[in-house]
Design a protein that fits this description.
heterodimer, B: 358 residues, alpha/beta, 2 domains, 16% strand, globular
């Protein structure tokens, strides 16, 4: 039986203290980042509600990674083709898509698997995005294959030149797979280094298994050092720390055309997925709550203003979800469409 | 007359100079070796990769997503099995994105027995590969088709799997490849001197490619009747295809007329050609050397018996002659011969079908 989800903003008991807060980023950018973090969080909470109301079969998503993913998305060179950044994303990347300008309804369409789901036509789980116009390659439920496929776009970009890079993200558990090692090996071949920003968002869990029981390495990023890859381990819970680490790494990859490995600690605020209940976790740091405390302490936004932003998105996304629920499901005759490029209907 | 592997090499050269192939890569694919079967010697776009099959297939997928045409080689198909989920991933890029993305990429890998390759150099891969949707899969049985099928793969906007029958790599064809040197022993020698790397130091060697190569293409999905016959149809591909043709020739001397079809493309395959032939002969034998349980030929038998018109025309049970369902191909001559179809076993199977009375 699905547990009811409390309406309204979820609050966390876990937030970092913020005495004497001073930001380095401009207030305008900070408020933009905050707005997108709230938007992404509210979207995910709406998707969870849709799941709990039986308007979707499965939820998996990003709450707890916004403080890293939103600053990342603000620095991506968005576009189509080799001059822009290619993104090989895992399924906790909705904040990146919301910053890019994704219509939240589209994420809901994928949750509901309607015919209008632009990412998969009703074929895939929630948060399995795909958008060629933005170089977002199809997200796979496999937790590691993106580290292997990122090699290829980076080879093409190395040859092409310019400043476009390949960005790949994944979780800590997936780094046990060989594809992560493949990415390290291939991106650091002497004389053939690749322009890849390799990201590991470390939430210290693989579904129900704690990383402390499976990984002897103190830092995942240390693995990069064996290959001569520049690395950095950061508190991904912190917006500014994330922003500046990503900035430094991206500038290096864009200019030097060599890989950079960032390991960012993050939270998993609704557990692994709907398979584990998708209920709010109070034991882990809520990066949004932490950021809002700092914004309030620094006098950039008031509590009332932040509540207003959240309420605005709550209302918008409630209304969107109600419209999505009315959309038709895919026509069963379409199951063979696109098995091959441009192909419609049964082909054999 | 070019050998099958020379034909592949010339097609790849045509691909890198005319069809936009940017990367031809894999283990030992680049200089100095140019492939363990020499399929990539002398190619400008060839390079050596780490010994990492998952990295090779992953890189090919990424290149395809970036719109960069590539040919990736897995050195032996025996080593492709640890990439199965990546092959599945490649096959679903168009479908799972509802047509937003497509993936032009070609993977080639040597398959099958015939070189005394023991347990890990004799596997087949057609049964497993034809179980992965979204790919187009080919296996040539002669140099001309080897050339034309490779050109077709390099033009296709989808993932294509090119299975190279390793037993036939050094076999010369009967039909000329457009643009190859004269079909004489002098011509063969000339071609070898032009495009086969010398033994020893190759650091100063470069290939001299025939200048008149063309985009001769064997369209994907088109089979070919290589022997016309009236009493039984035998459908095959790759290493066992020439054996089927030899069986047809032998049985002709006994007064048995065997029609031989080379599928050439395993998926999507030419059912129209196959079914028309069976409609005529009313008997069919499918032959390949992959293991016999959940074999691709079993699918073809299902297709045969589910076709209402064909089923009631059949004068004998449709059969499959395939490899023994054992974990590998044993190295000793008697073991290998007993593991995969041979000329004699094909002849016996065909006699049995023809002699069966409905």
């Amino acid at each position: 039986m699905k547990a009811p989800l409390k309406e309204g903003p979820q609050t966390s008991v876990a937030r970092a203290k913020s005495p004497g807060v001073k930001f380095q980023l401009e207030p305008k950018l900070l408020t933009q980042i905050h707005d997108n973090m709230v938007k992404a969080r509210v979207l995910e909470e709406r998707l969870i509600r849709m799941y709990k109301q039986s308007d979707g079969y499965f939820w998996i998503g990003a709450p707890g990674e916004e403080s890293f993913s939103v600053p990342l998305a603000f620095q991506v060179k968005k576009g189509q083709g080799l001059d822009y950044d290619y993104l090989h994303l895992h399924y906790r990347s909705s904040p990146i898509m919301t910053v890019f300008g994704m219509d939240p309804m589209d994420a809901m369409r994928q949750m509901k698997n309607t015919a209008l789901d632009p990412f998969s036509g009703g074929r895939n789980f929630s948060n399995h995005f795909s958008k060629r116009e933005w170089n977002v390659v199809p997200v796979s439920s496999t937790i590691e294959t993106q580290y292997a496929t990122s090699i290829g776009t980076a080879i093409a970009q190395r040859r092409h030149g310019g400043t476009g890079i390949t960005i790949v993200n994944g979780g800590d558990a997936g780094t046990a797979e060989g594809d992560f090692a493949s990415c390290l090996v291939w991106s650091s071949r002497p004389g053939s280094e690749l322009p890849i920003l390799i990201i590991v968002t470390n939430n210290q869990w693989g579904i129900s298994t704690s990383s402390s029981t499976q990984h002897g390495d103190k830092k995942i990023s240390d693995r990069g050092k064996a290959f001569g890859i520049r690395t950095q381990t950061i508190r991904g819970h912190d917006v500014e720390e994330s922003y500046f680490a990503i900035k430094e790494a991206m500038e290096y990859v864009r200019k030097e055309r060599k890989p950079f490995l960032i390991e960012a600690s993050v939270s998993r605020l609704y557990g692994h997925s709907s398979a584990t209940g998708c209920n709010f976790v109070t034991e882990e740091e809520d990066c949004l709550a932490t950021f809002e405390s700092k914004l309030e302490a620094a006098g950039i936004l008031t509590r009332a203003e932040m509540d207003e932003i959240r309420e605005k998105y709550n209302a918008q996304m409630l209304e969107m979800s109600q419209r999505v629920k009315q959309e038709p499901l895919p026509d069963p005759s379409t199951i063979y469409d696109h098995v091959y490029y441009g192909q419609k209907g049964r082909y054999w | 007359m070019a050998t099958l592997v020379q034909a592949i090499r010339m097609a790849l050269h045509y691909g890198e100079t005319h069809l936009g192939v940017q990367d031809i890569f894999g283990e030992d694919v680049g200089p100095p070796l140019g492939g363990v079967f020499t399929a990539t010697q002398g190619l400008k776009k060839s390079w050596n990769s780490p010994l990492d099959e998952r990295g090779i297939i992953g890189a090919a997928i990424g290149l395809g997503l970036a719109g960069s045409r590539c040919v990736a080689e897995i050195q032996f198909c025996d080593y492709i099995y640890n990439t199965i989920d990546l092959l599945k991933l490649a096959g679903m890029q168009s479908w799972s994105s509802n047509g937003d993305w497509h993936l032009p990429m070609t993977v080639m890998t040597p398959v099958g027995s015939g070189i005394r390759g023991s347990i890990y150099h004799s596997h087949s891969f057609d049964a497993a590969m034809t179980h992965i949707p979204g790919w187009k899969i080919v296996m040539p049985s002669n140099p001309l088709d080897a050339y034309g099928l490779m050109i077709a793969c390099l033009k296709d906007p989808n993932p294509t799997m090119y299975l190279k029958p390793k037993a036939l790599m050094r076999v010369r064809g009967q039909e000329p490849i457009p643009g190859e040197p004269p079909l004489t022993s002098e011509g063969d020698k000339m071609l070898k001197e032009m495009i086969d790397a010398p033994l020893g130091d190759r650091s100063k060697w470069s290939a001299r490619w025939p200048k008149d190569l063309t985009d001769y293409t064997v369209e994907l999905g088109q089979g070919k009747v290589v022997r016309e016959g009236e009493q039984v149809t035998v459908v095959s591909y790759g290493r066992t295809l020439p054996l089927c043709a030899q069986a047809s020739d032998r049985l002709k001397e006994e007064g048995i007329s065997v029609e031989v079809i080379d599928m050439r493309t395993l998926w999507p395959y030419d059912w129209n050609l196959i079914s028309q032939s069976i409609r005529k002969t009313q008997r069919v034998l499918y032959v390949n050397e992959d293991t016999e349980v959940t074999n691709f030929g079993e699918h073809l038998i299902r297709r045969t018996v589910e076709d209402e018109e064909l089923y009631y025309l059949l004068q004998a049970r449709p059969r499959l002659l395939a490899g023994a369902f054992v974990p590998g191909v044993g190295l000793a001559d008697p073991l290998e011969a007993a593991s995969v179809p041979q000329l004699d076993s094909i002849v016996v199977a065909l006699r049995g079908i023809v002699s069966e009375r409905a």
